[in-house]
Known about the structure:
Two copies of one chain form a homodimer. By secondary structure, chain A is mainly alpha-helical. Helices cover 51% and strands 11% of the residues of chain A. Chain A is built from five helices and two strands; from the N terminus they run ααααββα. Chain A has a two-stranded antiparallel ribbon with strand order 1-2. In chain A, a hairpin with a 2-residue loop joins strand 1 and strand 2 (78-83). The longest helix of chain A is centred in the last third of the chain and has 15 residues, at 85-99. Chains A and B meet through helix 1, helix 2, strand 2 and helix 5 of A and helix 1, helix 2, strand 2 and helix 5 of B. Chain B binds a DNA duplex through helix 4. Chains A, B: This is Metalloregulator ArsR/SmtB family transcription factor. Chains A, B: Keywords: DNA-binding, Transcription, Transcription regulation. Chains A, B: It comes from Cyclobacterium jeungdonense. Chains A, B: Residues 8-106 form the HTH arsR-type domain. Chains A, B: InterPro entries: ArsR-like_HTH, HTH_ArsR_DNA-bd_dom, HTH_MetalResp_TranReg, WH-like_DNA-bd_sf, WH_DNA-bd_sf.
Amino acid sequence: MGVTKSDLFNEMQNELATVAKVLAHPARVAIIQQLLKSNACINGDLVQELGLAQATISQHLRELKSVGIIQGTIEGSRISYCINPMRWTEIKNQFNQLFDQYPPSIPRDCC
Amino acid sequence: MGVTKSDLFNEMQNELATVAKVLAHPARVAIIQQLLKSNACINGDLVQELGLAQATISQHLRELKSVGIIQGTIEGSRISYCINPMRWTEIKNQFNQLFDQYPPSIPRDCC
DNA sequence: TAAGTACATTGCAATATTACGATATGTTTT
DNA sequence: AAAACATATCGTAATATTGCAATGTACTTA
């Protein structure tokens, strides 16, 4: 196996899981935080900052791009990465839609 | 490989990634939503609700428990699962600490 | 245009995840 | 105590992820 049965779940559940998967690696969290921190848009200086090989960083960047949370613009021979503001807000809201479901308005008697 | 170099990253990054990994499966999102929805604390009725085998659900429950987001209490021969309120808030805050870093107070000129 | 720089992609080895049948453990009912 | 439940754990097959060296692609500078 090793393959998720995504047809069993609704779109919200699958989408949230997909985004969470992208955040589910410390290198990718670190990359995001670098982009947040750096005044100028950081590119492959990430290879210096984090201690991973260039190929590995590139792979992580691709996954971050795959859910649209970051975007890259070609800047001569370099590539400038940064947060995609629209998508950032969307993702933030997606998570908060889940997180704000608790505590429920009607109290529960459980546990 | 297949093994994350977690020593390269700080605690916040590793912890957020660990929690995100637990949310990174639609079945686990679905389980959480069932626990949120059900007035009484749902147990292995989850096997009925979601279309997965009992062993699979049990495995997902264990992962949710591993980060403390849910807790189970033995109720006779059954087990009653529910959200752990403290941990829920902690996790919500962890994510929002990241999410609220954007947009930055000082505007950026990038992209 | 050749050499250098920056980044992406490919290919591969090590490890992790997903799913489930089978089985173990513990509880309740008969 | 035996049978019937409820849940956890084990073992295993299929697939996914992580990391990197090697290589490809594209721009820049000499």
